[in-house]
């Protein structure tokens, strides 16, 4: 999916919500554990209930790997289900990969070719040749970690080099890489005021924003400082939606949560139309 | 395995060689492709032929993920084979993971608990709370990327902050994290002269050194600047060994390569005994 098509979907569905599928066998309703593939059964129920309120799903790959081969199968079945039933929904492999060139190429192959994700999150520490193999794929996006939403973000990302934060250096340097038009960026919502500065460097890029709600970020602030005329935002919520309830009507309650966030997003979108 | 036991193995086998299992279906001898699990068959042949010359194996996780569920099965079979046949060999999951706390915990669970690796490589960009969940595991090591062997290492790792390289800040800061005694570091061999500086910060830590040979680093220089009285070095070679030949005697030729590196390592070890 191109970023233009993603913007179209956002205006059509009046939502820029991304739902994180951090599916944990210890947190899903216990009655699902008797299913053939409990992780996929949970994801399917969540997707069926919430797809009209969001434009993207983001499986968090760690949770699938922790379940071994069965987890990998669940991941494949989830992405296949999305491709078949909801081909207009954008998919993000939250993998935070990054390695030397030939290895990054294998990761790109795994997530773009084999599984067919639209995008993948990638860590910048190893620089240009660790990211460019992902950027080679046409109509696929590489979502580079810039300023993350966790406490540890302040360990290295906000160190100053020549008077400039490292995360800004990461963003600026990445603009010079080959096929940099395929880049998006992770910017934590807990630091919404930083968005104003970031928009000076990347006025048009899509930003994937985690940490709204659960981690204290405000949707209104994120939109105030980060929204562009093409929206340029995907705001993620994971646990607040998918684990809103552990009862048998968990999917319905997840849908209600997603719907309430979508309603707030609709208000924000009306401001730019 | 503790680092003390690793040192003992090194002196016993007169080798600090780590063999990287970057097993690629497109590079292994084609006659193996008819086997039930070609990746595992290749790894088994390499392990059978080379185990006496090395102290560690390092599967590169990207190559297994690119093969989907079958790749994950190959990874599991490889590690099980090592545990059964060669319990004295140290294992490294070259995964370069790192995410917010609850997600890093899932990766730690996948690689330490489910697969049973002795160690995993981790990226530092997201800071303290992205690494500490790995450090919680007793007798398991977290091998933090500090200065990598690729060209892109110079994009961010060697930026100066307050007059000090970022990779040094990473090392220094990481020493303050909880259970930091479980840390090792990735230091690229192409920058052997940096090792002298690095040893001032971490005089005793084990370093995983990629890039000797193929990428131009010299084993002698690495030892000169990086070796401690407990050795403190694992030097990795992947493609130069495992793809030394694609003929039916590939394992034998890989063993000859590994043996020639072990002989050089023996000379270096004699200097500190």
UniProtKB/TrEMBL annotation, chains A, B:
Keyword tags: Decarboxylase, Lyase, Pyrimidine biosynthesis
Catalytic activity: orotidine 5'-phosphate + H(+) = UMP + CO2
Record-linked InterPro entries: Aldolase_TIM, OMPdecase_type-2, OMPdeCOase_dom, RibuloseP-bd_barrel
EC code: 4.1.1.23
Keyword Cell membrane: no
Active site: 96 (proton donor)
SMART domains in UniProt: OMPdecase
Residue ranges of every copy of the Orotidine 5'-phosphate decarboxylase domain listed in the record: 16-254
GO molecular function: orotidine-5'-phosphate decarboxylase activity
Pathway info: Pyrimidine metabolism; UMP biosynthesis via de novo pathway; UMP from orotate: step 2/2
Record family assignment: Belongs to the OMP decarboxylase family. Type 2 subfamily.
Protein name: Orotidine 5'-phosphate decarboxylase
Organism: Christiangramia antarctica
Gene (UniProt): pyrF
